[in-house]
Fold this protein.
Amino acid sequence: MKVTKSDNSATNVTIKVNGDATDLAPIKRHVISHFTDSVKVPGFRAGKAPLELVEKNVNQQLLIDEFMEHALNDLFRKAVDEQKLKPVGQPDVKLKKFVPYTELEFEATLDVLGPLTLPNYKTIKQTKPKVDVTAKDVNDVLDSLKKRVADRVEVARPAKEGDELIIDFAGKDDKGTAVAGADGKDFPLTLGSSTFIPGFEENLIGMKPGDKKDFTIKFPKDYGVGALQNKDVTFSVEVKTVSELAETKLDDAFAMKVGPFDSLKDLKEDIKKQVRSEKQAQADQQYENQLIKTITDKTKMEIPEVLIEDQLNRMEAQEKQNLVYRGTTWQEHLDQEGITEEQHRERHRPEAEERVKAGLALSEVSLKEGIDVTPEEIDLRIQILKGQYQDPTMMAELDSPANRQDIAARLLTEKTIAKLVGYASKL
C-alpha cells in the first residue's frame, strides 16, 4: 500500500491511498466468507463450499459493493495509522481508480487534531483553598429553618414585611406580550425576603386577601436575561392569602422539631458541618477549574473547527432540554434574550472553544500519565447511580453501551484532574 499526505491546513489533510493485489486479497477473502452461508453451491451444504466456488456463484454486484465498503475502511484506517493522524469526524472520500481486486486508489480529505504541546504541568502550583464558616452563615440557615417551621396564621389585615403571601402573578412587556417565566400560581412569598426583583415585594405591602394590583417595574441593568435588562415589565398580582409567621424560639425544642437533634447546640454543629462541606465543594470546584484553565492556556494546540461546532451543538441541545423542563420554547428563550439563533450561537462560541481545548489538554495528560479506567470501576459507578433511581427505564439506560462509554469518559476526566491537583498542591 502506498500513501501520500498533503496538508491543507494545520487541521485538515488529504491522503492519497493506493492498494495493490497484495493488500486487497485478504479483504476479498474476508468478504467472500460472509456469503458462504447464504450462497447455494451445487454439491455442497451451506457454509461448506470452497471460497473459490462461493465467489463464482455469488451475485457479483453484491460482492463488489461489500468489498468496496470493507476495502475503503480497511485501507483508510491503515493509512491513518501509518501517517499517525488523529481524525475528527467523517472523511470526504473520492474513489479514483478500481481494477477489481487488484488495484484500488482513492483520496480522503479529513479534519485532524493538530499538533498539541503541553506545558510542564507538574511544576504548576496552586494553593488549595480553605473555607471558613461564620456565625452569619449559621444564623442564615437558622433563619431559613425558622421560617420553614413557623406556624402560619391567616389574617385579614393589610400585609406587612415579614408576612407570607400566597399570590398569583403575571408579567407583560411594554407591548403587552406575556413575559415567559414571569408568572406563577399559588406562589408563596415572604415580604422582605428579596426573592423577587427590587420593587416587587414593596408593591405588595398594604395589600389584603383578595386584592388585585397592577404595577410596573424596571428590571435591573445587570439582570440575567439580556432582553429584560433595563426593561419595564407590568405585573398583575392577586393576593390570595396573607399569613402572619409566628415567632419561633431558638431552643432545644426547635432543634428536635427540625431534625434528629437532641439540642440546639447539636443542630448548630450540624449546620456548620454542612455549610463547610458545601463551601469546600464549591471552592474545590473553582480550584480545579482554575487549574485546568491555567494548563489549557499554556497548552499550544491547533483544533479543527468541526470540534467547536460539535461542542456548540451539544451545549445547545442541553440548553433546549433544560428549557423544556422549564416550560419555555427555544424561540421564547431567544426572544427573551433579544437575539437571533445565530447570535446566540456566536455568544457561546468562546465557551465551546474553551471546553474543547480543556478536553484535549486533559486527554493528552491522561495519555502521558498512563491513566485508564477499568471495567470494574465503570461497574461500580453504575451500581452507585442505580442506587439513586427507581425508574426501570432509567436503570436499563444505565447499562447501555453509550452510557458506559460516557461514564468511562467521566471517570477518566476525574482521575486525570485528581492527578493534576496532586501535582499542583504538592509543595
Observations:
- The chain has a mean pLDDT of 92.
- DSSP finds 14 helices and eleven strands in the chain.
- The longest strand covers residues 232-245.
- Residues 264-298 form the longest helix (35 residues).
